[in-house]
Amino acid sequence: MSASAISPGGAQGGRVTRFAPSPTGELHLGNARTALFSMLLARRAGGRFVLRIEDTDSERSREVHSAALMADLAWLGIDWDAGPDREDALGPYRQSQRGARYARYFEELERRGALYPCFCTPLELAAARRAQLAAGRPPRYAGTCRDLSAAERARRAALAGATLRFRVPAGAQLRFDDFVRGPQEFRSDDIGDFVVRRADGSAAFFFSNAVDDSSMGVTHVLRGEDHLTNTPRQLMILGELGMPAPAYGHVALLLGADGAPLSKRHGAVSVREYRERGYQPLALVNHLFRLGHSAAPPGLLRLGQMARAFDPAHLGRAPARFDEQQLNVWQKDAVHHLSAEAARAWLAPLLPAGLSPEAATAFVAALQPNLVLPEDARPWVDIVFGAPPALDPAALEAVREAGSGYFSAAAAAAGEEADLPAIAGAVRAATGRKGAALYMPLRAALTGRAHGPELAPLLKAMPPGKARERLARFA
Questions:
Q1: What is the CB neighbour count within 10 angstroms for residue 408?
Q2: Per-residue CA distances from 107 to 1, 21, 116 (Å)
Q3: DSSP letters spanning 271-300
Q4: Which is it for strands 48-51 and 220-224: parallel, antiparallel or unpaired?
Q5: Residue 242, exposed/middle/buried by CB under 10 A (0-12, 13-18, 19+)?
Q6: How far is Cα 188 from Cα 233, in angstroms, rounded to an integer?
Q7: Which of 183, 334, 370, 445 is the most exposed place for a label (fewest CB within 10 A)?
Q8: Residues 6 or more apart from 411 whose CB is under 8 A from it?
């Protein structure tokens, strides 16, 4: 097979990209970034973005994972034009429902002599791999079953099931142009004959992934660099079938801030975990958008703005580092831009039951400019709605210095619904204080802190009579 015979040509028509996860676990950050980039690549050209669930691994694939993946993608704002829930003529979009199609392709390749049955057991293959590694050779299939006679194949087939392997041509140079990493070249002799159908009859990844991309009209495949060595295998399959191949681009992997592969030791690594901690989807996609993509404009971007700015020519080849501290910068910005209604909903699980909408709005408005995560509000929930707080040292000093006359005037001016201008005016008239000398003792007595969120909305959030009781303690 010549190099030109396996070079990707791309499908005709508009740009079509896809995200094709295996439903074997949660959506992790690296996959979420791949999905985001793939959607933006399509949207930038006014094309289509497809979601395909690759669930041919029956032992590990679970419907609960499929549902969770789709929910996490939707939460991030990553929307697809066709998928398991939006079937069209090119579907179905679950590989477990495409077995009859794969069978036709297998028959065609067998007819062409491109496949052969392999009866090697997993133990035999593992032993051969160990021997090759011990001899300093790269592990590859030795071709044990490649040239069995028809009689021998029939005899073995009667005894055990077989996989199907693709017959890789010897001595071929396999070249393709990666639209992220540039020209790539592989030697077929370094690949070895690979499995395209498992012993249970299901299609292996190399096969189903490649033929589905082609038959679904996918023009551009953007995926992690760990799939780079899969590409020559998939191009050989499509070339043998005479099917158009998409253009392939492979993005660098995601690392932790310390340069090590992203893992649990760096904190949360799945979208669900960040979602449950209270991160905003816009914060997460803004951080992911900038990991390995150097053409991002400054500031918090909406997905439409990202699509206009996205350029695969600016995808880096070096691994990108996920930094939760930088994520928190985007998170604070995203929280600051939440509407009052959205901010109340975000903090609702922490707020006391029965709190009036007016009090909830005032409380959230006071805290919103300085919050990163919902948990940051918990101390202030206790301060505003709980028992009178203990005073920190600076607050205690401010209360002592103000004196009882200050607080007698403050408590007398505080009605059931406390109003900061009215209280401050009464204290100013009684003591002549102004500026920090006027307001800091009030803050200290009411919150137990010398510093904190804006005081006026906190007072509006307090239950009736609470402000007066707290001020009267020091009168």
A1: 17
A2: 20, 27, 11
A3: HHHHHHHT--HHHHHHHHHTSSB--PPSS-
A4: unpaired
A5: exposed
A6: 9
A7: 183
A8: 468, 471, 472, 475
Q: Please tell us whether the domain made up of 255-336 is placed in CATH 1.10.1160.10.
A: yes
CB neighbour list of residue 408: distance below 8 Å, 6 or more residues apart = 430, 475
pLDDT reported for residue 6: 38
Q: Write out the residue limits of the CATH 3.40.50.620 domain(s) in the chain.
A: 3-253
Q: Which amino acid is at 14?
A: G
- The pTM of this model reads 0.90
- The residue assigned the tokens 């959205």 is 342
Say what the pLDDT of residue 295 is.
Answer: 83
Query: CA angle, 409 as apex, 407 and 410 as ends, to 5°?
Result: 60
Residue carrying structure tokens 């419907």:
63
The pLDDT of residue 60? 78
Cβ contact 54:209 at 8 Å: yes
Q: Which phi and psi (to 5°) does residue 94 adopt?
A: -115, 125
Mean pLDDT per 10-residue run, the chain (475 residues)? 38 81 92 97 97 87 91 98 97 96 97 96 93 91 94 89 95 95 95 95 95 98 96 97 98 87 73 96 98 91 97 93 95 97 96 94 96 97 95 96 95 92 96 95 96 95 95 94
Q: What is the DSSP letter of 200?
A: T
Q: Which CATH number fits domain 3-253: 3.40.50.970, 3.40.50.620, 2.60.40.10, 3.40.980.10?
A: 3.40.50.620
b or e along 162-177 (b: 16 or more beta carbons within 10 Å of the residue's beta carbon)? Answer: bbbbbbbbeebebbbe
Question: How many angstroms separate the CA atoms of 163 and 180, rounded?
Answer: 34
Looking at residue 13, its pLDDT comes to 52
Phi, psi (rounded to 5 degrees) for 206 = -50, -40
Angstrom distance (rounded) from CA 441 to CA 430:
14
Q: Where in the chain is the domain with CATH 1.10.1160.10?
A: 255-336
Q: What is the 3-state secondary structure (H, E, C) of 360-423?
A: HHHHHHHHHHHCCCHHHHHHHHHHHHCCCCCCCHHHHHHHHHHCHHHHHHHHHHCCCCCCHHHH
- How far apart, in Å, are the Cα atoms of 13 and each of 10, 48, 218, 219? 9, 11, 10, 9
> Do residues 363 and 458 lie in contact, with contact meaning Cβ atoms separated by under 8 Å?
yes
Residue-wise over 16-38: b if at least 16 C-beta within 10 A, else e? Answer: bbbbbbbbeeebbbbbbbbbbbb
State the Cα–Cα distance between residues 242 and 219, nearest whole angstrom.
16
The runs of H, that is alpha helices, within 178-323 are 205-215, 231-241, 271-277, 281-289, 303-309
Do 48 and 16 touch, CB atoms closer than 8 A? Answer: yes
**The pLDDT of residue 4:** 33
